[in-house]
Phosphoribulokinase/uridine kinase domain-containing protein
Amino acid sequence: MTQTASKPFLIGISGGAASGKAEACKKIKDVLYRKAKGKKVEVLSLSSFYRELSDEELKLALNSEFDFDHPNSFDFKYLADVLRKIKQGEHVVLHKYDCSAYSSTPDVQEVPDDVDVVIVEGILTFYQKETLQKVLRDVSMKGRCLDSVLDSYFKYVKPAFEEFCLPTKKYADVILPRAPDNHVGVDLITEHLLQLVNDSPLIHNVQHYIPRARNQSESCVGSFRPH
């Protein structure tokens, strides 16, 4: 079967908190830069699409009482609009999110109009790893005390993963266990993307790869929806 990709090519990476999503994205991006000379790759974090909090919600967040892993915490309409603009070849500017202040920052991420691959990563990209990894990351990067992090994890992060993230596993074309240490899986994904960005037709050998059947509604933008 021959398949031609439209530019830019969008892919999503989803998984539980601290499951290695960002590191897997970095490895994929590094390989593409190394092997696909001159191609442009951008990684978007779902955290850039947190909605603005009300004053009352901000007070809850500062006391670690706001659930940032719930679908209602994200502006999926904004995400869909950004992806639509990217697919239309528009230059996009996004404000980065400060996880310690719970608000957008003046710092921006730019997606050029001639980008070749855009990777979107986040816990609810398709709407856990070790608890220790989540704890260490939050304590070091967000300045939160250990008790607060553990309470937040078991109160919000773990239940949100089981209710909202895990069911979206069925939408994934590739399951990547032990990310980002699954070098075989990362190589498989990057080789597939290399063919796409180099404008080479994708020849699928049914003896080695059977594409998962998709529903009509599972488009690049349409897949980014809360469940």
